[in-house]
What does this fold into?
Amino acid sequence: MIVQNASHPIPTPGNIYGYITAPTEAPGSLETMGVPMTFKRNSEIYGEKEPSDYLYKVTTGAVRTYRILADGRRQIGAFYLPGDVFGLESRKTHVFSAETITDSKLVAIKRSTIVTLAARDSAVARELWNVTTCELERVQQHLVALIKSAEERVAGFLLEMAKRTPGTNQVQLPMSRQDIADYLGLTIETVSRTMTHLESTAAIALPSSRCVVLRNKVTLGRLNS
Amino acid sequence: MIVQNASHPIPTPGNIYGYITAPTEAPGSLETMGVPMTFKRNSEIYGEKEPSDYLYKVTTGAVRTYRILADGRRQIGAFYLPGDVFGLESRKTHVFSAETITDSKLVAIKRSTIVTLAARDSAVARELWNVTTCELERVQQHLVALIKSAEERVAGFLLEMAKRTPGTNQVQLPMSRQDIADYLGLTIETVSRTMTHLESTAAIALPSSRCVVLRNKVTLGRLNS
DNA sequence: CGACCATTTGATATGGATCAAGCGATGTGG
DNA sequence: CCACATCGCTTGATCCATATCAAATGGTCG
It folds into this structure.
């Protein structure tokens, strides 16, 4: 919410910073033409209604996109972790706002640059379509999650987070309970109670509030339907 | 649910039916390379988990996409009306199933054909990205709707339907109350009660259950946040 | 140590679900 | 042409999962 870094280094088309460190295996070509940017935690990256001139790829840190309704309710659209691309969700102007959750490094890629490149290079065009469809699939899943019970939503969320931190059953949550609640369409109290309950049934362990160990994925998966 | 038309006319790459009648203004080039198909009402177009080999454009009629959870709950992902394109929501296999709501005519377009064409023609590639992003935007809106109150959801739904039948405040609903309920994450009873309530506050008129007249869009819009 | 913030826990309220009839339109067979 | 079954929708009564309100706990930082 609090903008700690309002002055974006505006990348220009002529910029030739190459961003080299390959984050994961994912979308290969895109980040090579982007500009690295650094944000403090809870910084606005873009606001709802702003023109969507850039796509972003997370290098380190974590990002949330969200929308605030007239009466203050907030819906979080997604959490983006290292390797994820965001800013695709709109054509002209953003439907959601984006903020960092923790101190983060991103790569910003000018939309027009990609569009131009995509017009020439069909591999880029295809990549772009691919990433967008991935995002669409993700939102569809999220949509389905919102009709489930509180326990199913939380279990699903934890499994989703675990899948994104492969190789371990221990999940470090960069986001607050309030963020999780607004992502799942629940209240902070319900999220907390549900976590406690999952712990009491030995489905998870909670060494600390931001660290969850999945002890019984089968149980969690069953809850997930 | 009941499959009345299980034998799809499988379109082949060699098919040279040109589909000429331009439905609306929207996505121009896509349907010209498709194959027209006719479905009775409540026919399955494709099932969840099936490979997503085709995109479809609605010519006449109406389509719903949906997902059934283990315990039978159904979430409707979207309603598609004449001019709309669907089947984009996945890369390899469908995440949702699709059914006609009423007798319908569709144009089926082979995915591989489009991909091939998109590789050659950047206008097609761009169109494809555009349609997908539109769909993404729509799902995001839907997501946000699901955290609202029952009355807001119903009001929002009616406004959305009205926007898709321009030039009039009278909306003909091709879908049942159950469909609307499953789209909005409510029960049929709640949808019905909410409609009745909106009628009693003169926000809408209900000449018949499938016909809604929006009498006060301002009130409805306010509810919509 | 004390202030602050995030989280948990407890008590109560409520919106929408569930269970249960009733009603009106449509269709079917006698 | 009418009795009656069927189906989609509405209306009513009650229940419950989650929200709301309130307070206690715990962790972090100056």
